[in-house]
Amino acid sequence: MVATNGENVTSWKQMILEGIDFDSYSESSFTFGAPISSVDLSRLEEQSAIGVPLDLRDLLCEFNGLFHRYGDANEPVLFDSNQMTRAIEYYRSWDVPTENLLRWSRNIWYLTQCNGFACMSGIVIQQLGQFQPGDFIKFDHDDLESAAEPDQLFRKCADDLATFIDDATIGFC
After folding, report:
1. CA-to-CA distance for 68 and 88, rounded, in angstroms?
2. Which is the most buried residue in 132, 149, 162, 168, by most CB within 10 A?
3. At what angle do helices 12-19 and 54-62 cross, to 10 degrees?
4. Spatial CA neighbour of 59 closest among 98, 10, 24, 131
């Protein structure tokens, strides 16, 4: 559960649904994944210097991934636990050098993407340049070629998961 105003406790699903503009999207086009399994949660715990933060654990235990049906495709809005660790693979065959991005991304669980993976956001799980475990960061693919250090590509985008989700509008840029 997440406290959105210090007093009212609401579910992560409710918070997310309240942030979606249903004038532009139909509620029925969104599907929440089943809660994370204990095996997958343990796997994530082992990868991170900070474990799975409590708010992210609560979210994953409520649902694991959010998908938007767009035509015949289900596009990830909020990655599930398996995609969090593999979403960056989209950039492996990108048309610009991505070696740095792929190396740096071992320190990040990606939570969202927008605009066809043009921008990705996530939580730092191991020290990455100036970014500490638990920081929420994002990058834009337009900055890939010029970034020689993580600090030149990534920027901090939120202080906590609730703000991250609210500010990211669940991956819809």
Report:
1. 19
2. 168
3. 80
4. 10
**80 and 92 in contact (C-beta within 8 Å)?**
no
Predicted confidence (pLDDT) at residue 114 exceeds the cutoff of 90: no
Q: Is 64 helix (H, G, I), strand (E, B) or coil?
A: coil
Instruction: Give the other-Cβ count within 10 Å of 3's Cβ.
Output: 12
Residue 56's H or E segment, with its range, is helix 54-62
User: 């703000």: which residue's tokens?
Assistant: 163
Q: What is the pLDDT of residues 58-82, one digit of tens each?
A: 999 999 999 888 788 888 889 999 9
Which strand (E) or helix (H) includes residue 78?
A: strand 73-78
Residues 6 or more apart whose Cβ sits within 8 Å of residue 111: 78, 79, 84, 121, 122, 123, 164
Residue 43 corresponds to which amino acid? Answer: R
